[in-house]
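User: Run a structure prediction on this.
Assistant: Running it now.
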Amino acid sequence: QVQLVESGGGLVQAGGSLRLSCAASGSISGINTMGWYRQAPGKQRELVATIPRSGSAHYADAVQGRFTISRDNAKNTVNLEMKSLEPEDTAVYYCSLFQYSGLYWGQGTQVTVSS
């Protein structure tokens, strides 16, 4: 089993910045992809960004150029730096880890961007 614990998030004005962090623990494979997804009220969960243990990050078009994902393989953590936030970025953000044993989710952290 894998456990994911997120931190960060909160309320910010449009144009502001926030940083999300996620720590993974448990039976973590040496090959995995970590990432962030988000779910706004009344909408389906959508990909924000993913990053493999080794390789390039992938971003959704909506956040390209504003968000930066990074990870620390030694600590099994993944971060999401969010800049130039927009009200449309308001959602619950979920950390994820995908490996041979399955896809795992954190509990989610709320990000609210006021206009």
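The radius of gyration is 13 Å.
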